[in-house]
Amino acid sequence: MAAERGTAAEALVGQVVLPGDLLLLPAHYDEDAEGERLQLSAGTAPQGRLLCGPGLRRSGAGLLVTKCGLLRHRPGGGGAYWVDSQQKRYVPVKGDHVIGIVTAKAGDVFRLDVGGSEPASLSYLAFEGATKRNRPNVQVGDLIYGQFVVANKDMEPEMVCIDSSGKSSGMGIIGQDGFLFKVSLGLIRKLLAPKCEIIQELSQLYPFEMVLGMNGRIWVKAKTVQQTLIIVNILEACEYMTAEQRKQALAKLSGN
């Protein structure tokens, strides 16, 4: 009965979908052979397997929409479907790299505001080279770039600033001189895409440093305060500008 009310996923790619919509998959995805099940993962799709991204979950022989937005599809391998939305409220996900703001120290644990419904915890030992005698110099108000190792609805989110080999890999305390601002989660995913045109165009305008958090936060630092603010304004406007409008704006700035 549910299948009769559904719509083919391929026919809705690029269109708006609403929570509760049922998307039907092509027949070869319904075989459910061993090793051919739908994989709820954000990694690279093995040949023949379909990936279910943000805004979708498995429902029988199809996909159930859980958030409003544009349906997207990436071919290759088994392909991938996800919903591209302008969501700003962040829900912690294990493995995500985020920017947190230290709000308190509680014994050997730091509390961080990550934009979710509750703060995340970060142990002082979760930094490269940290020991009981060599503690990191973390103060309330500091910005921390880290990764979630625990994130589910039944437990407090937990972050670390080291990878599996104990190295920082770029994570840790972020410098004080930059500018922190917030954008939608959809824009963050665009900026994190390989060979992002927006990043490439901005890098030709001014040299700058940037940290992107999956929780919608961006930290930017350029050579001067004026250049930093220009980059911030362009990134904030990218959500409402076409590619052509963005190029025209950058051309005017580079001409000045």
Automatic annotation (TrEMBL):
Q: Where in the cell is it found?
A: Cytoplasm; Nucleus, Nucleolus
Q: What is its main location?
A: cytoplasm
GO molecular function of the protein, one example? Answer: RNA binding
Q: Identify the keywords attached in UniProt to this record, alphabetized.
A: Acetylation, Cytoplasm, Exosome, Isopeptide bond, Nucleus, RNA-binding, rRNA processing, Ubl conjugation
The K Homology domain is annotated at 178-226
* A Pfam family: RRP40_S1
Output the GO biological process annotations, alphabetical, semicolon-separated: CUT catabolic process; DNA metabolic process; exonucleolytic trimming to generate mature 3'-end of 5.8S rRNA from tricistronic rRNA transcript (SSU-rRNA, 5.8S rRNA, LSU-rRNA); nuclear polyadenylation-dependent rRNA catabolic process; poly(A)-dependent snoRNA 3'-end processing; regulation of gene expression; TRAMP-dependent tRNA surveillance pathway; U4 snRNA 3'-end processing
A cellular component term from Gene Ontology for this protein is:
nucleolus
- Exosome complex component RRP40 N-terminal domain residues: 15-86
Q: Which InterPro entries match?
A: Exosome_RNA_bind1/RRP40/RRP4 (IPR026699), KH_dom_type_1 (IPR004088), KH_dom_type_1_sf (IPR036612), NA-bd_OB-fold (IPR012340), RRP40_KH-I (IPR049469), RRP40_N (IPR048541), Rrp40_S1 (IPR037319)
Quaternary arrangement and interactors, per the entry? Component of the RNA exosome core complex (Exo-9), composed of EXOSC1, EXOSC2, EXOSC3, EXOSC4, EXOSC5, EXOSC6, EXOSC7, EXOSC8 and EXOSC9; within the complex interacts with EXOSC5 and EXOSC9. The catalytically inactive RNA exosome core complex (Exo-9) associates with the catalytic subunit EXOSC10/RRP6. Exo-9 may associate with DIS3 to form the nucleolar exosome complex, or DIS3L to form the cytoplasmic exosome complex. Exo-9 is formed by a hexameric base ring consisting of the heterodimers EXOSC4-EXOSC9, EXOSC5-EXOSC8 and EXOSC6-EXOSC7, and a cap ring consisting of EXOSC1, EXOSC2 and EXOSC3.
The UniProt entry's sequence similarity note says:
Belongs to the RRP40 family.
Q: What name is this protein filed under?
A: Exosome complex component RRP40
- Name the source organism: Loxia curvirostra (Red crossbill)
